[in-house]
Structures are given as C-alpha cells and as structure tokens.
Amino acid sequence: MLLGGRRSLIDLLRYSPSFLSRAYSSLHYHKALNGSNIPFANRSFHVQGLRKAPKRQKFFSSNVPPQTSQKDHDGQETPKSQKKKTRLPPGKTSLRRVAVEAQRSRDIKKQRKQTAADESEVPKVVTAYCAAEQYDIAHVARILKGSGHRLDPYETGLFPQVVHIEILNSLPRKLDGVSQSTADIFIFPSGTVVAWAVSEDVMSTLLSETLLPASQNPHNTRMEEEDLEYIEDPKKESSSIKGDRIVLGTKSQAPSAESPGEGESSEAHQSLSHTIDTVLAKIAFSSGLARSTKLAVLESLLADYFESTRSIPAMLSHGGRLPTRSFILHKTGDLLNIRAQLNLYSELTDSLPDLFWDSRHELGLEGYYDQVGKALDTNIRIKVLNEKMDYAQEIASILRQQLSERHGVRLEWIIIGLIAVEVGFAVRQEIKEYNGGIVSEGFRLTGQ
What we know:
The chain is of the alpha+beta class. It is about 50% helix and about 15% strand. The chain has helices at about 1-15, 15-35, 95-120, 135-145, 200-210, 260-310, 310-320, 325-345, 365-375, 380-445; strands at about 70, 75-80, 125-130, 130-135, 165-170, 175, 180, 180-185, 190-195, 215-220, 225-235, 240, 245-250. A hairpin with a 5-residue loop joins strand 1 and strand 2 (about 75-80). Helix 6 (about 260-310) packs antiparallel against helix 8, helix 6 packs parallel to helix 10 (about 380-445) and helix 8 packs antiparallel against helix 10. The termini are far apart.
C-alpha cells in the first residue's frame, strides 16, 4: 500500500508539473505569513518561462493581501499600517514668485548703477543767501568791477535783472585727475545771492564786506539760507529736479555733418552755446531758490510779529489793560511793511519774473523756475503767509478800534471837565453879581 501510494505520488509529480508549482507557491506563501523573509517564488521545476502572478482585483474583499504584523511595546503583535503615499506640494515657482525675483534683480542692478553713479559724481551744494532787503544793482556792478570781476562773462544779456560773476572755486572736485577751477555766483535785486559750490568763508566775506555798501536794510543779525544738492549729468541735454536734487544736463548735441574746414569752429561754437544754456539754466534755478529764501525772511518776520502779540488775545478775553498807543502803532506798521514786501515791492507773487521775458522760449527756463517752486512749495507758502497776515490784520484792527474808543472816552471826559469848570465859573459869577447887587441896594437905602 505504501509502495503503491509512493508510485502514485511519483506519477503525479511526473505528469502534473503544474500541481508541483502550485504546491511550492503555497509553501512559500505560508512561510511569508509566519514572518519569513523568503521571497515569493513563481518558478516550477520544469524549464519554462516565468509565470506572472494573477493581477489582484482590489474591489473584492477576498483579494485584499494579508497585512504583516509587528510587535508593539507590550510584545503583542499589531498589524503593520500600510503607508499611503502623500502627494508632494507643487514647487514654489508661481508667477508671483517669478515677478518678485525679477523685481529684486532689477532693484539690485539699479542700486549697483546708482552706487556707481554716486561714486563717480559727488553731489555739490547750491546755496541762496538773503542778506538785505534790496540791492542797488548799479552800485553792485561798480563794486565788483572794482574788485576785478568780469560781469556777465557769457553775455547772457540779463545784466539788469541779475549780476553773474565767476570766481575761483574753493571746493575742488576731482574728475579724471583735474579739479574744477571756477564757480558761479548770481546776485539779484531782491537782496539775495545764490552761489554754486562756493565755500562759506568766501560767501561770508562777499556778503558782509564786499556787497554791504550796496545793500539796503541789511540783515546783519538774521540772514536766511537755503540750499539744494546738484549734480552735473553729462548724459542728459536738459536739466530737471529729482526730489531735493538738481540735475544739470551738460551733454551737448551731436554735431551735424559739415565741411572739414568748418568742423572745428562749429564744434567750438556749439560747446560755447551749450555752456551758455547751462548758465541760463543755473540762473533759472537760482531765481526760484532766491524767491524761496526771500519768502523765508518774511515768514520769519511774521513769526516774530505773532510772538510779540501773542498775549493780546488773552488780554482781550480777560478784560485786562491794553498795550500803549505807541506799541499798537508800531505793530501795525510792522504788519503793513511785511504785507507790502510780499505783495507790492517784490516779485514773489508774480507767476514769472521779468528776466524770463528776455530769454529764449525754446530754452524752457520757465519750466526750471516752476520746478523749483513746486519742490520748495513756494506758492503754497505764499498763500499760507497771506492767510496768517489776514489774521494778524484782524488783531490789529481790534486794537485800533479799542484805541479809538479809549481815546474817544478820554476826550469825552475832558469835555465834561471843561463843562464843569465853565459851570463853576458861571455859578461864581452869578454869586458875585448877586452879592454885589445886595451891597449896592444897601448903600442906596442907607443914603436915602
């Protein structure tokens, strides 16, 4: 029986290789369930190709592959959780990030260019001084000629409205190993002087000594100053103001094609013409800066006026004693003087000074003048100054009214006193006449 069974098993293995393959696969499957690391085998004993495992369908519960178990901290076996692959978030390469990176790179390049420009061109300072109420231009011209200065060196034709001189620059700037040698000074009839890159020592000597005889009502104790930075840009033909900095365009226009004989003379003439245009641009900027400095003087005077009359509204509200007549008249005269200097005796309120009417329109000097006014808020400051003077005028009017009333009351008391004296004399005269009549009547009766 045993021999027969063994033969039947050998015949089964010989004629049924698929049975042996399934048995071998089942054996390894059970070993995998017991925790063995033997890989799953799909190979039969006979030489043939690899058999592929049937594809498991996940929509049947019976086809779910068994889960391996692992021991926890207590020694109990727990089924190993199947890790689900999480989807990685998309990369941070959105359009906004790309735009931010591009803007950052542009800012870095711009900053590098700006740093290189600042290193190559150091900004200089243009300063305006208001040293007097007015300047006698004819006297100024005589003084400067006597000092050896050349008036209007580039023949701009604006001499009556402004006096232009060039002096040796005491603030040298290294440019390719050569230091700048000249600087420009512009003197206006309004009592202001504008200096382009000139040291304070030179300007102090010029204002306090040289030009002092030609000044009217000089501001010895109070001299207003305003300054702006400026640079010379050889890449621009026109000038402008960017923030608080003046950019002077010093680039000359490209020369036109001419004959070889006229090339050098034309180039020299074009260079001189462009230098004249640059000087005219400086005059326009200087005029606007001088206007702002003159306005600053009036603002300071009005501030002093308000400080001296600050206690008057409180005195009126508390019924205190009013200032004297001389004080009221003095303050009224100061206020009228400030208002006249602003609106009558200067060009502060004019939209365009007279010197621009004599210049060529294509130069655009009016635009430079307006740019300075916008940068320094000149028109707004004039409006605010007039409004403050209107308020000061109201206070002065109330003081004059109170002064008139007080004077009228005094006159009334004087008149009342005179009437009382006259009544007293009349009563005395009547008494004397009455007493004289009684005496004469007594004598007459005694004589009879």
